[in-house]
Fold this sequence. Notes:
Order of helices and strands: HEHHHEEEHEEHHEH
Strand content: 5-15%
Oligomer: single chain
CATH architecture: Up-down Bundle
Amino acid sequence: GAMMDNRFATALVIACVLSLISTIYMAASIGTDFWYEYHTLSPAENVSEAGRSIWEEFVSKDADEKTYTDALFRCNGTVGLWRRCITVPKNSHWYSPPENDMTTNCISFSLSDQFVEKYIEPGNHNSGTDLNRTYLWRLQFLLPFVSIGLMCFGALIGLCACACRSLYPAIATGVLHFLAGLCTLGLVGCYVAGIELLHRKLPLPEDVRGEFGWSFCLACVSAPLQFMAAALFIWAARTNRKEFTLLKAYRVA
């Protein structure tokens, strides 16, 4: 018995560690602004040319998708799930040499921004609603929270399981982690699809390079960790159940 118990204990400890790491990664990726990054090869003169107007448009309440995407293109923008950032000269004298002093300024997407309709032509509300992009955006906003919620719920069940000295709830914890992994995969898929569709509508300018950032990578790493944790939880519970049944049969005999 003792030998077996060690194996389950080890599997469960590893599963818990994986679960914890993936939760931290998910939380970090939701909270950071580097899901997608634009590298503008000649940003400085662009900014000083256009002056404050870019920044004012970027921050304004009615900045539509086209306005803020253009600003992201022109000023080394980065985008998170919750915020968008651009890098602009620090000082108010736009005519002084800008490259000395650059500062990154961010603005949050409001809740209504997260649920607002996307248009077939970004920025033109007469062009009709682009349902694909609208729902991809809403999903990419909701799925990470569902994923973290499932894992926290799984952790609670796991704690109860420890308190009751029973391994049966480990199967439930495993299933919840599996669902969380599916949500995380869904989130990554929605994000990639959304960016692809946006760039089809608003192609990147010649001198701008775009790439997925490290916040996005954290979410990508989080999914396999969730699946591994799920597999370990379920394996430990099932194998232990078999052992237990065998032990009972042996005692009766």
